[in-house]
Amino acid sequence: MPPMPANRGPQGPSTVDKLKMGAMMGGTVGVIIGFIFGTVNIFRYGAGTHGVMRTLGQYMLGSGATFGFFMSIGSVIRTDASPIAVEAFARAQRRPFIMPAQQGGYRSRSQ
Asked: How many whole angstroms separate alpha carbon 40 and alpha carbon 55?
């Protein structure tokens, strides 16, 4: 068995880092979508008794929290790789092996 290399190279982000990154991305997208939908609903139906800013903030906060939660869970699920998937990815990254052409050519399927 070969010895372990002294420097294994740069390590990728941990699962917790990916959870936080997914929550930040999802929260940002959710806040933007909440702003768009909240603005449209305020224009269509009015702000109600709470006023424009509080109603819009509720749309933005609710949408951002929901989408951020699901995006963080999705990013953690995506990082859990099975050994089969890791091996398939490693095989896809190596150089292709090209076989030399046969001298006799190819046979047709009817033979």
From this structure: 12
Count of C-beta atoms within a 10 Å radius of residue 33: 16
Instruction: Return the structure tokens found at 28.
Output: 């940002």
- Contact present, 27 and 69 (Cβ < 8 Å): no
What are the structure tokens assigned to 10, written together?
Answer: 């740069």
Q: How far apart are CA 30 and CA 64, in angstroms?
A: 4
User: Residue 39: phi, psi to the nearest 5?
Assistant: -65, -45
Give the other-Cβ count within 10 Å of 69's Cβ.
15
Q: Answer for the pair 27, 68: CB distance below 8 angstroms, yes or no.
A: yes
H helix count then E strand count, the chain: 3, 0
Local mean pLDDT, 10-residue blocks, the chain (111 residues): 60 82 96 97 93 95 97 86 73 71 64 55
DSSP annotation of 49: G
